[in-house]
């Protein structure tokens, strides 16, 4: 029995990177999945892969920066499986690092629309569904080490990620009495499609990240998925309101600039 056996679980931003790694791990742990992303072809291919391997998974194309798009994966979970037990709110992105004063208003708006507003819209839809059912639930947000410290190269995204940490605390205050747990993971740096532009900015950057990280390397996205799976599972039944660093010790000892 996997740690997510039978749990109906939404994963946003599931088409690639951490989201796809999480979907594969959650499926291996027995979850019944709704995979959501803007790009339909990506999540449909992943759902087909997981279904062929014996998992239960459906794909939903959704733009979570809109209320309708954020509701769509929740509706699919209820229509397909009859309920929603868990969610990994992973959809997010940021620009290539630059000093805060070099950003313009359009960048701020774009970053906050997806990372903060989109996460809030997803969380709102999920909390409403879980509260209406009255059987508790678990949600994990994907923030990043920029939610915990400064100095990671993009103040617009860090501001949004700090806001997500606030959402975790507020949701805990509002919904813990209903048995709904809300936590976040704060990943360090991994090689994914989202970070390729960062590494492409200079070949020395991967080595610099490794030197700044006590464990001495960048992460594999599956390592972040493992932490999310544990927080979503009943093994973390007394854990709520936490933003958990999954960063190789990076934020424990220094910031990376």
Write the layout of secondary structure elements.
Layout: E1 8-12, H1 17-28, E2 32-37, H2 40-52, E3 56-61, H3 67-81, E4 86-89, H4 105-133, E5 137-142, H5 155-175, E6 180-187, H6 196-200, H7 204-212, H8 221-232, E7 243-246, H9 250-253
Parallel strand pairs: 1-2, 1-4, 2-3, 4-5, 5-6, 6-7
Helix pairs in contact: 1-8, 3-4, 4-5
In short:
The chain has helices spanning 17-28, 40-52, 67-81, 105-133, 155-175, 196-200, 204-212, 221-232, 250-253, and strands at 8-12, 32-37, 56-61, 86-89, 137-142, 180-187, 243-246.
CATH topology, what is it called?
Rossmann fold
Q: How far apart are the first and last residues' alpha carbons, in Å?
A: 43 Å
Overall geometry: globular
CATH superfamily name? Answer: NAD(P)-binding Rossmann-like Domain
CATH architecture: 3-Layer(aba) Sandwich
- Report the major sheet: 7 strands, parallel
List the strand order in the largest sheet: 3-2-1-4-5-6-7
CATH class: Alpha Beta
Enumerate the spans where pLDDT stays under 50 for 5 or more consecutive residues. none
- Overall pLDDT confidence: 91
Beta fraction of the residues? 15-25%
Number of strands: 7
Element string (H = helix, E = strand): EHEHEHEHEHEHHHEH
Structural class: alpha/beta
Please give the domain count: 1
Radius of gyration: 17 Å
| Count of individual helical segments | 9
